TrEMBL record:
Subunit description: Heterodimer with POLE3; binds to DNA. Component of the CHRAC ISWI chromatin remodeling complex at least composed of SMARCA5/SNF2H, BAZ1A/ACF1, CHRAC1 and POLE3; the complex preferentially binds DNA through the CHRAC1-POLE3 heterodimer and possesses ATP-dependent nucleosome-remodeling activity. Within the complex, the heterodimer with POLE3 interacts with SMARCA5/SNF2H; the interaction is direct and enhances nucleosome sliding activity by the SMARCA5/SNF2H and BAZ1A/ACF1 interaction. Within the complex, the heterodimer with POLE3 interacts with BAZ1A/ACF1; the interactions are direct.
Biological role stated in the UniProt entry: Forms a complex with DNA polymerase epsilon subunit POLE3 and binds naked DNA, which is then incorporated into chromatin, aided by the nucleosome remodeling activity of ISWI/SNF2H and ACF1. Does not enhance nucleosome sliding activity of the ACF-5 ISWI chromatin remodeling complex.
Acidic residues bias (residue ranges): 107-122
InterPro entries membership: CBFA_NFYB_domain (IPR003958), Transcr_DNA_Rep_Reg (IPR050568)
Keywords: Acetylation, Coiled coil, DNA-binding, Nucleotidyltransferase, Nucleus, Phosphoprotein, Transferase
Segments for region (Disordered): 99-132
Places the protein is found: Nucleus
Protein name listed in UniProt: Chromatin accessibility complex protein 1
GO terms of molecular function: DNA binding; nucleotidyltransferase activity
Bias (Low complexity): 123-132
GO CC list: CHRAC
Organism of provenance: Parnassius apollo
């Protein structure tokens, strides 16, 4: 398998990008030009996101929280908000739920129904991921 100059300019593996593109039910075949274009644009997007997140660092280390913060603050990145939520500790989550309960936003009947559905809906709606 020979590697062309165009492929040398890319950092993401073309085969993986092609697999992801073909996983969409609307896509039957992927030509070499669109594959190269999507791969290059994806790389540029990741570079831009990383650079924007790096501006929020205080040192020289980029962490998940920096990227998640950019995603949460930029409305153009709202498609990533469920994938990259802000992380909070269990203590912060419990405090958040206690404040919510103290406000009495819901009636007792609604609260008991929602708690039986599970807390995953609360996690996704608040845009946070709980860490211990």
């Amino acid at each position: 398998m020979s590697i062309t100059k165009a492929e040398k300019d890319l950092h993401l593996p073309l085969s993986r990008v092609k697999t992801i593109m073909k996983s969409s039910p609307e896509v039957d075949a992927v030509g070499p030009e669109p594959l190269h274009l999507v791969t290059k644009v994806t790389e540029l997007f990741v570079i831009d996101l990383a650079k924007r997140a790096y501006k929020n660092t205080k040192g020289n280390m980029l962490e998940y929280k920096h990227i998640a913060e950019v995603v949460q603050e930029d409305d153009t990145l709202d498609f990533l908000r469920e994938i990259m939520p802000r992380k909070i500790t269990v203590r912060q989550y419990k405090e958040l739920m206690a404040r919510k309960a103290a406000r009495g936003d819901r009636s007792d009947d609604e609260s008991s129904e929602e708690s039986s559905e599970g807390e995953s809906s609360e996690e996704s709606s608040s845009g946070v991921e709980i860490i211990e």
